[in-house]
Amino acid sequence: MEDEPLLATDVREIVFNLGYETSGIADSFETAQQLAPFSTIALVDVNLRDGATGPRIGQYLASEFGIAVVMMTANPEAIREDLPKVVGLISKPVHPALIRNVLEYLGSLRDGGSGLPPRGMRLFA
Predict the structure, then answer these.
(1) Alpha carbon distance 67, 87 (integer Å)
(2) Handedness of CA 47, 122, 92, 16 (dihedral sign)
C-alpha cells in the first residue's frame, strides 16, 4: 500500500519481477480492506491517501486476516513503538534486493520457519 502512484507502481513492478503475484495497490484503509482477502503479505506505507493510517491498517491486516505485514516509510523515526502483529519496518527508498529479502523472510515465516530477518529491516516484538 502506497499513497504515491509512481512509488506504488515501482514496488509492484519489483515484486512482480521477483516472481510474486500482487493482489493490487491500496492507497487507503477502504481499498486495503477490499484487497485483504486476496493477500498473504503486505508492504504498507505509513502515510496513505487518507493520512498516517498505515500503522492502523497494518495492525488490522495482521490481526483480522493473518497477513504478514511490513511497514515502509521514509521517516522510520516516526514509528517509535512496536506495532502489535506487524512484522517490521523498512526505510524508503526501497531497493529491489531488500524487497526480495523481505519477501523471502516473510515467506519463510508463513511456512513455519524462523529465518534471519534481512539487514535493513527493523523487527517489531
Answers:
(1) 10
(2) negative
Distance, CA of 116 to CA of 105 (rounded, Å): 7
Q: What residues are paired with 25 via a beta bridge? A: none
- Rounded Cα distance, 31 and 37, in Å: 11
Q: How far apart are CA 125 and CA 85, in angstroms?
A: 8
For 63-95, what is each residue's pLDDT tens digit?
999 999 999 998 888 888 889 899 999 998 889
Instruction: Say which amino acid occupies 53.
Output: T
Grid cell locating 24: 493490487
H/E stretch holding 72: strand 68-73
Map out the domains of the chain with their CATH numbers. 5-123 (3.40.50.2300)
Q: Coil, helix or strand for 41?
A: strand
Q: Which helix (H) or strand (E) holds 109?
A: helix 96-110
Q: How many CB atoms lie within 10 A of CB 31?
A: 17
